[in-house]
Structure formats: structure tokens, C-alpha cells
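Margin note: ligand = cobalt (II) ion.
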Amino acid sequence: MSIQTVATTPFAGQRPGTSGLRKKVAIFRQAGYLENFVQSVFDALGDCAGKTLVLGGDGRFHNRPAIQTILRMAAAHGFARVLVGQGGILSTPAVSCVIRKHAALGGIVLSASHNPGGPDGDFGIKYNIGNGGPAPEQVTEAIFQRTESQHQYRISDAPELDLDAIGSTRIEAMQVEVIDSVADYADLMQSLFDFDAIRALFVGGFRMCFDGMSAVSGPYASAILEGQLGAPAGTVINGVPLEDFGGHHPDPNPVNAAQLIARMAAPDAPDFGAASDGDGDRNMIVGRRFDVTPSDSLAVLAANVGVAPGYRAGLKGIDRSMPTSCAADRVAEALGIPCHETPTGWKFFGTLLDAGMATLCGEESYGTGSDHVREKDGLWAVLFWLNLLAVSGKPVQQIVSEHWARFGRNYYSRHDYEAVDSAAAAALMEALRASLPALAGQRLGQYTVDFADDFAYTDPVDGSVSRQQGVRVVMADGARIVFRLSGTGTEGATLRVYFERYEADAAQHSIPTQQALAGLIAIAEQLAGISTRTGRSSPTVIT
Ligand code: VG1
Ligand code: CO
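Resulting structure:
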């Protein structure tokens, strides 16, 4: 074994987006592409000697070869130890958990999350810092700067390592520990939730369906739900991670998790349904014939936080991303705690969580989590709901309806226009930005614009500023439309348009969502000219 320095040429466009660097597999398979990025991560970290690194991914195509490469590079950079998930498998929240538990310098997550996998699909890589959370923008920017002038990388020429046998081996002077992918994470979950109450629920005949979407959360869900909590075999469906996710789009929303939604609408539907995404950090919560929006889920968990033993001390605050509905704000107000509004992406929650300013966090994109790790956490949210269902004895729909009756309902929807022409999408956003100064005070449909701006955020802890985080048009009654371009897509541009309006009157809480938001949807078209500019008459996905 020896350490080599390999000459390379920089690749353009290695700037991490909302959640790491995501590209088509074919791009990642170019000689030196992954290596250059990893070298840039290690360069940005500085001295890695004697440190511990956590490494794992969602099992998608190219996961194993990428892990072999990164292990050999880590050895060439003097890491003392790498903890790698068995078979190369670690969910995003499990990486966060393992980094924290073992006081690692950081971790590398190989995933493109909800993006499709397989040889023609997407691959991704993300660096998480010592608090277990995604690297903040200063770090991702430093990594990107290095990629622009990366002319060499260092790697050991050690042979491939067996990733499937738990145990310890060496590459150069570095110890490689293949760890159980689930154990540390399962211990943490057990410390937060009332497993006895949930076990009693299943003993009483409660039925659930968890859709692993052939992605990383299957092994976690099988071990915890069926193994530790006694849910009947078959509770977890699509529970084995496949390199191409079975050809499916591992994004847990009612459109992509159609199999689960159909099961929850059947006459003999289980009591509770849930799904998670490619890397296990998102969750969808479903009752019988009833989908819970992620924004409502966050608000409901916040309002009922005392059911879970790990949260009996109450909440320090709630964080939500700007496009996420204001349902959680109403709960925060009732609890007398702050609610922070951050840009899209979990990396913005880390400073607030570390500073003890928040306990629960959520995003409208099926992401919920807390200060137990520094990532959103799919199975955590499912266990929280199970704990709530066990303690309350009420069905999902009743819990949500009662929540609306108490706090009012924030009707909410997101319209995605995927793979649109990048130039057209950029022009649409530019035109919108140009129109903002004239919008305040204007009458649009039945609404009057209160203010319109491009969301800029100053982190209250470290003072860092992030601009252009989404154009928002906010009406006098608080209803709003948000426009932003996705930072995770790999084909053209994806335009996301978010709609929200508040309804206090419980007699008005059963309107179909798209109907309830029709006025705002028409205004968005009028303001942005979506159909003419993108050539699309309707969204690709509505959630
Ligand atoms: C999307 C979501 C965002 C989420 C991000 C990463 O980003 O909107 O809320 O944090 O994905 O989630 P964008 O830029 O495409 O809108 V995951 O599950 O991919 O790590
Ligand atoms: Co994800």
C-alpha cells in the first residue's frame, strides 16, 4: 500500500446546492470527478490527522464504488478512523446521529435524496460538520472555491475493502470500522419516544403501512417498527434498498407514493401510513383517506410535544423554512416561544439548534426534525406520530381536524414545474424581481398586496447573510405566494410555486385544497406568466 498523488484537471460546476452536489451518475463516473470534489472537501477541512470521519449513503447506484474511493482518499489524508455503515448504508439522519455520538470531525453522505437513482439517475455527495448537520454556506462555498483550481488529489492504492462484514480493518494507518447501520440510530429513537406505549398500540391490533420506497429507510423501519415495536411482519413495504429504487422516484408525496396512498384509501386501510425518501430524512404522514401536509404535521407535533418522553421539557422554539406554512407559528405563539423563519434547506437550522434557540424544525417538503440530530429525520417523525396516536387514542384525521378547529387551518400547496428550460426559468424570476417594487398596495383578485420582496436572511447566531432565497408576495390578510427555483434538480430548472392562505372558521375547513387556493393560483399566473414563459399549462407535481 502506498499513497499516490494523482494529477487532475478541475471540473466546472461543482458548487453544492440546497443539499450537497447532485449530478447525473454519468457525470460522477467521469475519472477524477468525485475525487476532485472529495479532495476539495478535505482541503477545506484542513488538518484531518487523527480525526474520525463518518461515511455512508442511501445505497443508490454508484454508492459502493464511491465509498471505496473515499475510504482510500481519507487514508491518504491522515484520518485516524472512518466509521462506515454496513454495505455502505447509512441514512442521512443516521449519519448525523453517528457523527454526534462518536464525536467525529464530520461525515460524508452519498445521496441525491429524493432524486431518482440507477445508472441513468442522479448521484450526490454532501459533507456534514461536527455538529452532525449539513455544512453551512461558508463551508460549501470554500469547498467550491477549491474545486475551481483542483489540479491533484491524494489517494491510497489499497485494494477494495469488504463493506459487508461488521468489524475493523485498516487502510494505511487508518482504521476502518464497518458499523451496524441501524444500532446507534435505534438507541437514540428509543431514548426519545415511549416505545412501551407504541408496542401496546400494536398489541391492540393497530395496523400501519410504512413505505420504504426501496430506499434507505427500509432497514431502519424494519428493525425498529417490526423488530423493536412488534408491528406485524409486512408493516414495512418496499423495505429493501435497491440501487435504482425499483425504478421509482423516492420522494414521499401523494404523487410518488401512489401505492401507499391507494392502500390508505382501500376499504380495509390500515390506521396509519407513512413513507420516507431516498436518504431517509423526509416523511409523509397519512391517515385513512387523509394526507397530512408537512406544514400541518410540524404544527401538530409542536402542539402535542409533551406526549414524547424526550420532549417533556417543552420547546425552546420552532424553526421553519420560509415557504413552509405559518401553521407552526400559531402554535409557537400559543406556547409563547419564538418561531424562526429561515431559507430553504436544513443547513440553516444548525446554528439555531446549536444555540439552543429551537427544538423542532420543519420544511414544507416533507421534512421534520428536532435537536436530537442536525438533519431532518423521516423515521423520527413517524415514531413521533405513533407516540401521539398511542397516547391520544385518536385517528390521524381527528387529531388534525381538532388542531385546525383550535388554531385555524393554513391551506397550503406547492406546484412544481420540473425540468423547464433554465433560461426561461431565470427570465421568469428576473421579471418577477423587477416587478416587486410596484406590487405593494396593488389589488390582485380579492387580495391586496401588503409587501413583496426577495427573501433575504440574516442568521441571528452567526450574522451570515443569504440573499435571493425566494420571491414572496404577501397579501394584507397574510395569504401568500412564494416563487423559487430548486437547488436540488439536475435537469434544466425546477420552478416551485408555494401557496398559502389562513382560514379561521372551522365550518370552512373541508374545502378541497386546490379550490381553497384557486384565487392565489390565478394571481401567480398573472404575476409570473408561468404558462407562457415555461410553455407548461399545468404543474408537473402538485403537493
Ligand atoms: C428541496 C426542498 C428543501 C429540502 C431539499 C433537500 O430543495 O424544497 O426543502 O431541504 O430539497 O431535501 P429544493 O432546492 O429542490 O427546493 V433532501 O430530502 O433532498 O436532502
Ligand atoms: Co432526503
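The mean pLDDT is 97.
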